[in-house]
Amino acid sequence: MKQDATRNAAYTVDCEDYVHVVEFNPFESGDSGNLIAYGGSNYVVIGMCTFQEEEADIEGIQYKTLRTFHHGVRVDGIAWSPETKLDSLPPVVRFCTSAADMKIRLFTSDLQDKNEYKVLEGHSDFINDLVFHPKEGNEIASVSDDHTCRIWSLEGKQTAHFLLHSPGMSVCWHPEETFKLMVAEKNGTIRFYDLMAQQAILSLQSEQTPLMSAHWCLKNTFKVGAVAGNDWMIWDITRSSYPQETRPVHMDRAHLFRWSAISENLFATTGYPGKMASQFQIHHLGHSQPILTGSVAVGSGLSWHRTLPLCAVGGDHKLLFWVTEI
């Protein structure tokens, strides 16, 4: 738990395995600490972390593992449910994963004796992203290389199914627009679907391909960001179906894009994992250059803290955390 100057991460936490994916819980969980989940080759770890930026008597980071779930297959994606509550009796931790065997697993635990999981099957190729309904937590949306976006009930029944024109790379459900779903495809098209009418109502186009990752801004529902090819791009959906701003960012192809949860001008991108050192960058729309550049040994996963300008990335037997000034 030390300051790690060599890779300029502010904090690191040692892990048992290579970290494929990491996700801060984006919802209020009823506890002062921050829930974080990370996945490796065959397990998911749920932990709690508190940072010195939040509590003055902590030096650096305080991290504690709450529970490790055996997964049996590589974890590709993790999504938190808003129903996760640590201040209820008993506590509830609920999340779902996508895995290398093309299945979704829904985990529910009280962090004691009750640990259940349900398998949701239907995709016929790799699942690239998944997300819970951000208010009710009663449905899960997923997108896959099989050219579909599917919506599932918690019982595992498919409640909606959209055919895509290329692999689905990202899916976002906005807490302020829960009747809409944003789906980004590898061919550079981002569509918004009306879930009541079950049809597309708006589409955006990137000028670059392949589009690898897109994200709907939490602080401004008109803003969408993505990475495609070597570039990041930002749309204002009230103005045009083409990006307002585009900038080359990662020479080795860009991989992930995530808006900060606390500012509509702050976002992070990563280069491709699997290089010896993958680049991680934090950008601010008021600055022409990245405001922070980090290097991660084979970095994968990217997640923002719910209330701090702080990012987590998975590394080789490590979680790495970067902090920036806004």
TrEMBL record:
Keywords: Cell cycle, Cell division, Centromere, Chromosome, Chromosome partition, Kinetochore, Mitosis, mRNA transport, Nuclear pore complex, Nucleus, Protein transport, Repeat, Translocation, Transport, WD repeat. The keyword Electron transport does not apply. It is found in: Chromosome, Centromere, Kinetochore; Nucleus, Nuclear pore complex. It comes from the Eukaryota. SUPFAM superfamilies: WD40 repeat-like. GO terms for biological process: cell division; chromosome segregation; mRNA transport; protein transport. Pfam families: WD40. Its main location: nucleus. The keyword Cell inner membrane does not apply. WD repeats lie at residues 120-162. PROSITE patterns: WD_REPEATS_2, WD_REPEATS_REGION. Transmembrane segments: none annotated. One of its GO terms (cellular component) is nuclear pore outer ring. Component of the Nup107-160 subcomplex of the nuclear pore complex (NPC). The Nup107-160 subcomplex is required for the assembly of a functional NPC. The Nup107-160 subcomplex is also required for normal kinetochore microtubule attachment, mitotic progression and chromosome segregation. PANTHER family: NUCLEOPORIN NUP37, NUCLEOPORIN NUP37 P37 -RELATED. Component of the Nup107-160 subcomplex of the nuclear pore complex (NPC). The Nup107-160 subcomplex includes NUP160, NUP133, NUP107, NUP98, NUP85, NUP43, NUP37, SEH1 and SEC13. This is Nucleoporin Nup37. It comes from Phodopus roborovskii (Roborovski's desert hamster). The lineage of its organism: Eukaryota, Metazoa, Chordata, Craniata, Vertebrata.
